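Subject: sequence -> structure tokens, single chain

Hey, anyone have a minute? Need the predicted structure for the following. Not urgent.
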Amino acid sequence: MKGKTQILLLILFSIIIMGGSAFMIFEVLGGGFSPEGSHEMEATPRGSGYSQGGNSSYNGENIHGQEQTPGVEPLPEDTAVIYIGDSRFVGMNDVCHITDQPGRFVVAKVGQGLSWLKREGLYQAQQIEASNSQYTHFKYVICLGVNDLSHIEEYKEEYRQLATDHDLTLLSVGPVGNYPGLSNEDIEDFNSQLSELCRECNIPFIDDYTVLTTEGYETQDGLHYKDAVYQRIYQILQQQVEGITTWESSQ
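Reply:
Had a minute. Here:
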């Protein structure tokens, strides 16, 4: 009887030793029990991958795989903005009532381009500066070219000179629909050269062409936009030029 007891104790001791060894091996290999919901690694937060800068309503929106540029700081009260352009800026002002706001001016004319800018547009902008001495700084935001895409070299030379003594921002030419004599391929070529000039001369460049072709857009006649598109363009300008990141739709 005593011998049987010793054998049973020996077997039990062996089982305990083997079990402990197996548990140690299991832990070394990374096993073990985790309570439900616990994680060894910190979970990737929702929305990771975008720059959390500024207070932009569009932070995190990816345009062709690139992060949307965060908004700038709101402009000081002594800074005014002069928007200079063609019929698209005329339409945008009609819809968004830009000139109803203090320190916001629009110099635009239907069917115009570079020759008008040099002959009249810049003169009108200078007159605005002279007549509004309460503002000590003026930002020029120009969008021209859809009426004379072939003059890209002349545009580049004019903008290069203008940027030497003006706070200049350039807006890309927006896309068209089915409109005689205009194609988005030609507009893309124009914008590409304009963007390259801006990099060369350190001029801020706002690429609303990419935003519109990514999000979608509607035109009235192939060239001029529906109201919602003009509102979207001005939202982009407010964000990137004026530092305004919340809007009230006028629709």
